Amino acid sequence: MEFVNSSMPRYECLLFDLDDTLYPLSSGLSEACTNNIIEFMVEKLGIDEDGVVELNQILYKKYGTSMAGLKAVGYEFDNDEYHRFVHGRLPYENLKPDPVLRNLLLTLPLRKLVFSNGDEVHVMKSLKRLGIEDCFERIISFESLNPKVSEIEVSLEDYLPEVPVICKPAETAFEKAFDIAQINRQSTLFFDDSIRNIQTGKAMGLHTVLVGKSEKVEGSDHALKSIHNMKEAFPELWSESNNKESERIGYATQISIETSVHA
Q1: Is the pLDDT of residue 157 over 70?
Q2: ∠ CA(190), CA(122), CA(192), 5° rounding?
């Protein structure tokens, strides 16, 4: 671990993925989500059961998320219906309050944001189950990256995207996140469990932390077996805070979920 001695802090912002990053893969939500996606593909889209698992894997690998892949190859469905089916039936009861993580987050006087491909209902429900919903300045969710056509004042020509759904690991998703939250990528530490997301983040100029692995991979500056190991890996974040005036930041009334603005 390298340390930088400077009057200016090395990091000013912490950007966190949600799923399998702020809570562990062992929670079972990821597996349940995959099963729900496969059920949606069969029940709602009429895709043959025999090849649905392989198709889902191909779409996820090529387009970043199964939803983005389904849209890209021509399937039409309501985004909210998809999210209700896929996320609405997840075993959220598996997520328990995490006082250790809460304390780590609250003792860091840096900007802290969530950057997730998930819809905002899923993100908030997960954060509340973990007891950390008031620890973040802003949430960048599916709705932030994909505002509804009727809710943005642009011409049709300007609106038409190159892909139907914008999501990580696409560079476009990161660019939108940087713009939405006014993020300085050179002083931002990005935590994610996805190697693809980490690699894009690194290419975009972020400092990257692969979560859930003990060894670094190409594109990751650091690796953490668990998000709980933050203080061990980055003690300078806390030592820098000791040099500042002690001030508890109350995010509870400030949290800003980036939602679509109705005209």
Answers
A1: no
A2: 15
